[in-house]
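Researcher: I'm preparing a figure for a lab meeting and need a structural model of a single chain. I don't have an experimental structure, so a prediction will have to do for now. The sequence is pasted below. Please return the structure as tokens so I can convert it later.
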Amino acid sequence: MNIYLVEDDTIYAEFIRKTLGQNPAHTITVFGSVEAALPHLDTLPDVLILDYKLPGMSGIELYEKIKSKITEHKKVIVMSAIDDGNMVLSFIQKGVRDYVIKDENVIESLLAVLEGKDDDYYLFN
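Model: Understood. Here is the structure written out token by token.
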């Protein structure tokens, strides 16, 4: 599974990369900004994990830019430390299917989405 992570917090990005990378089936590439990731998105990875708040273009702006290329076999996960129902609703209205809160359960939430068990896992606190 080819995973791109767009996260500007280098320590947090490394934590996610190392933890998800424990599964040998996961190949994870980290980008610190949307602008760094854009040249690599001509072909979408299996999974794109986007931080909502990024320097420059936001994760949701990138989602809007690429959503026409997203097929049912690709996943886009938006992450944020902000637990705001109105914001999540606006993401859903834009077409985002997977949203994960950056809290103590972030890895479990990400794995649930990656493994297709997100219907069985409560992703919103």
